[in-house]
Write a structure and sequence with these properties.
By secondary structure, this protein is α+β, with helices and mostly antiparallel strands. It has 9 helices and 8 strands.
């Protein structure tokens, strides 16, 4: 908190980050992890001043159409699809999932080939089915919203189990296949998944909480709803990445003044953070082993490995290392975490 006459506002940089979801819950009693694999700066375009001419205003409108989150999201998806093909995954389907800001016409209409998109939708989106056979219309005249599907008593809830927070939990959902969103997806068929509120308690002595329901729109029509739900619930791990990058690593706090260094420093921190997570997973596995510091009694049941423990372990290994690192790689006597990071 500064003085009352000082305004606590500073210019910020906006980045678009992509993380690779690793489903560790398939083999171990832990949640999924997210490894940062790409980060790009997507700062807002500087608006012209009051004295700008018509030509400058026109150029500004064209720049806003190209330099926005949705357009860069599509470009990043194409790059990931190309890199996946080059890595030998040409037969694999690339699943892209995001929050509600990517549920728009640009992202849904221009997704790469051999890719699917799963995003959170608004509860008042106007949806419809295909017009009856023999009609000249493409869209049916009867419209409905995702919230109407949730309140419809004629459609029964289906119960499935997904892995979340280290346990298998029951989730109730409704599913509609072959719906159309005229304002956002045009003539592309979509799948609507309605997730019911799930009651939970923060502790045994606390009251019962009911989070809000969720509505998902997906472009994949052939897979089961359980797989889509698992992917979307695992998407929360990128929020954990953002918290650790901002809080633990201090991304954006570096005192830089060079125009070239300002956008590159956060990207370097993201890459180092991803390499640290990957090295710890390869060296010690997903769970908490004996190599990490002991937890206090009030956290003895914690299963997730925070970034702060990895940094502490890395500092211990660097301090205990007696031999210097060769220019071509690490020595054989290097600790496990540093060897995995080099690999």
């Amino acid at each position: 908190m500064s003085q009352p006459f000082h305004v606590n506002l500073v210019l910020g940089r906006r980045f678009l980050q992509a993380s690779l979801l690793v489903p560790l819950h398939r083999n171990e009693p832990v949640g999924a992890h997210a490894l940062p694999i790409r980060c790009e700066e997507v700062s807002r375009v500087k608006r012209p001043g009051r004295k700008a001419g018509d030509e400058e205003i026109k150029q500004d409108k064209e720049a806003v159409k190209k330099q926005n989150l949705s357009r860069r999201f599509v470009e990043m998806g194409r790059q990931l699809r190309t890199e996946l093909d080059q890595a030998g995954g040409s037969r694999k389907i690339l699943a892209l999932t995001g929050d509600g800001s990517f549920c728009n016409r640009t992202c849904i209409a221009e997704i790469p080939e051999r890719s699917v998109l799963l995003v959170r939708a608004r509860q008042d989106a106007k949806l419809c089915f295909r017009a009856p056979a023999g009609s000249r219309r493409f869209y049916d005249t009867e419209k409905f919203t995702p919230d109407h599907v949730r309140l419809d008593q004629a459609r029964e809830w289906k119960t499935t189990k997904i892995s979340y927070a280290g346990k298998r939990r029951k989730v109730r959902c409704k599913e509609l296949v072959g719906v159309y969103w005229q304002g956002g997806a045009k003539q592309r068929p979509l799948r609507l998944i309605v997730i019911a509120p799930t009651p939970y308690r923060k502790s045994k002595s606390k009251k019962l909480y009911y989070p809000r329901q969720a509505y998902l729109l997906a472009t994949n029509l052939g897979s089961c709803a359980k797989q889509s739900l698992q992917i979307y619930f695992d998407r929360w791990q990128i929020e954990v990445n953002h918290r650790e990058e901002n809080g633990t690593l201090g991304v954006g706090q570096a005192q830089l003044g060079n125009v070239t260094s300002v956008p590159k420093q956060p990207v370097l921190a993201f890459a180092a953070y991803g390499a640290l997570l990957l090295a710890a997973n390869r060296a010690f596995g997903a769970g908490r082993g004996q190599v990490y510091a002991k937890l206090p009694k009030w956290r003895r049941h914690a299963r997730r490995l925070p970034c702060l423990d990895l940094i502490a372990l890395l500092r211990i290994e660097v301090a205990e290392q007696t031999q210097l690192l060769e220019p071509c790689g690490f020595e054989i006597s290097a600790p496990a975490l540093t060897r995995a990071a080099a690999a």
